[in-house]
Amino acid sequence: MPSALPTSASRPTLPSMSVLTRESAQPADSMKAIAVRVSGLTKRYGDLVAVGGIDFEVRQGTCMGILGPNGAGKTTTIEILEGLKQPDSGEVEVLGRSWAQDAEAIRERIGVQLQETVLTEKMTVEETVRLFRSFYARGADCSDVLELVGLTEKRAARVGDLSGGQKQRLALGCALVNEPELLFLDEPTTGLDPQARRRVWEIVSELKRKGGTVILTTHYMDEAEVLADELVIVDHGSIVTRGTPKDIIAGLEAESVVSLVPAEGAVFDDGELGALAGVSEVRREADSIVLSVSDTQRAIGALYQFLAREGLELLDLHTHRPTLEDVFVSLTGHHLRDD
């Protein structure tokens, strides 16, 4: 089990947050500088178009979430932004510089936590952090980094003896040693317990407050809604929608979502369901039928009339307000955590 992280009660002022980027006056969002600019970005692997000419900007002091089903192109996109892959065409500007001309200068100012980081298992936790700190001209005190990610008590432990969650937190610490202005997080909380996951959220929020910028991929919709100021949803190498989480959810144009589980042997026609009053969209998910409805009362009334008329029965019916997950499935046909 991962070691317990410091609680807010024991560390009310979060002193170890000093390892994050230095605080600066924050202008209004519309006046913030562009930290990352992507234009016409394309990457192919033979006949496969992994990234198909996408464009977006990330403003300083904000968190951009990149979401997409597996194979959508999000990992390729973020690896190009990190300088790990070369695009076939398009332009990438990171902190006002290009990878082609200013790679070393960019690396001094960014932090990267990969989806999977392989560290030397014979080294201790402290040795690993000190090694990564040695790569940069300036940065944080290693003890502060260990405190920040909750690994102070594990400083003498060998990497190979850590749990999966502890290794994930160590990788995050290594990404923070240079006090980055721009932090890339590729699924940073996978394998973490709830307390450690919440601590990562605090780190991201504090980094933003001090003027830092975060680009995040995640398989957790609640994480995207909490952390991201803006989201880009990609599928088949293209951006299918972008905006704030609130605006993207509003784009579903649904008052509620109704999920039906038909009784055994009951056959429902999607066209007939879609024609019911108040129903705007019908989709199938495993053993359920999901209706996006613009008028919940009318739709439920029309549904029960339809069931009685057709002699059909349900095993279950429930409603909920639209979520980011509902929009994602509607746009891509997949849940975020689908394989």
Compact summary:
31% of the residues lie in helices and 26% in strands. The protein has 339 residues and is α/β, with parallel strands linked by helices.
Question: What this model shows, in words?
Answer:
By secondary structure, the protein is α/β, with parallel strands linked by helices. The chain has 2 domains: 15-248, P-loop containing nucleotide triphosphate hydrolases (Rossmann fold); 253-321, 2-Layer Sandwich (Alpha-Beta Plaits), CATH 3.30.70.980. The protein is 31% helix and 26% strand. The chain has helices at 74-81, 99-109, 125-133, 142-148, 164-176, 194-209, 221-227, 245-250, 270-274, 296-310, 324-332, and strands at 34-45, 48-59, 63-67, 89-94, 110-113, 182-186, 213-217, 230-235, 238-243, 256-262, 279-285, 288-293, 314-320. Helix 3 (125-133) crosses helix 4 (142-148) and helix 3 (125-133) packs parallel to helix 5 (164-176). The longest helix has 16 residues, at 194-209. The model is unreliable at 1-16 (pLDDT under 50).
Offer a few descriptive terms:
Alpha-Beta Plaits, 31% helix, 13 strands, disordered N terminus, 4-stranded antiparallel sheet, alpha/beta, Rossmann fold
SSE layout and pairings?
Elements: E1 34-45, E2 48-59, E3 63-67, H1 74-81, E4 89-94, H2 99-109, E5 110-113, H3 125-133, H4 142-148, H5 164-176, E6 182-186, H6 194-209, E7 213-217, H7 221-227, E8 230-235, E9 238-243, H8 245-250, E10 256-262, H9 270-274, E11 279-285, E12 288-293, H10 296-310, E13 314-320, H11 324-332
